[in-house]
Hints:
Keywords: ATP-binding, Nucleotide-binding, Transport
GO molecular function, one term: ATP hydrolysis activity
Shape: globular
Mean pLDDT: 92
Low-confidence stretches: none
Radius of gyration: 17 Å
Pfam families: ABC_tran
Organism: Leucothrix arctica
Largest sheet: 5 strands, parallel
Order of helices and strands: EEEHEEHEHHHHEHEHEH
Number of helices: 9
Protein name: Methionine ABC transporter ATP-binding protein
CATH architecture: 3-Layer(aba) Sandwich
Structural class: alpha/beta
CATH topology: Rossmann fold
Distance between the termini: 30 Å
CATH class: Alpha Beta
Bound molecules: adenosine-5'-triphosphate
Amino acid sequence: MNIVELNELRYRWKGQSSDILRIPELTITKGEHVFLRGESGSGKTTLLNLLAGILSPTEGSIKLLEKDLSHASSMAKDRFRADHMGVIFQQFNLLPYLSVVDNVTLPCHFSARRKKQAGDIQASAIQLLDHLQLHEGLRKSLVTELSVGQQQRVAVARALIGQPEIIIADEPTSALDTSTRDRFIELLFSQAEAQQSTIIFVSHDPHIAERFPRVIELSEINEAL
Ligand SMILES: Nc1ncnc2c1ncn2[C@@H]1O[C@H](COP(=O)(O)OP(=O)(O)OP(=O)(O)O)[C@@H](O)[C@H]1O
């Protein structure tokens, strides 16, 4: 099954005279772990935002799970993201006034599908946090009391809860030391494999790229560069 299908995709920022992205074709299939590589400013985050439905293509189509979402309303895209995507961005977008566990269970409050798949959402959050080796004593803490590396793990648990089909991660390991980074990747992979999720991962770290079975060089698929 194709999880992502791009066709003749173009994206141009408002006020710019040229496209930042022009991708004739890209297909990512179920369960693939894909690493997206490219120079700073080449459009990696822009592409992830298009996939996540935060931006809309200037031209062309984006199909996710075989549904064409290019011209869907923002509400429909928000719904789709809540139901089918776990997103980890550079700024983790954790809610400062909620505890660690409540941040992790958040997607289940926006998506009945994710809630159903998680089952007991508190237990599911705790299980994910345990897998990610977040100290038990921190579960009830506010996320503002956590180190950046600990916050990254909370963001990962939140992305994985309720078994979304697509995990999108933009530089999620930038604040981790090498051993925590390696453990983080192991856990992301094993969790994604257990739930058959597709991963699309952006990072500047060449050691992480080595771990991915498929590396996409943005310059090779993007004719706008
Ligand atoms: N909100 C915006 N409005 C206008 N231009 C933008 C906006 N966000 C990004 N850009 C431009 O789009 C281009 C691609 O940016 P993007 O963040 O996608 O690159 P990137 O490959 O993720 O870079 P990095 O590796 O440094 O994070 C840059 O030239 C940037 O200036």
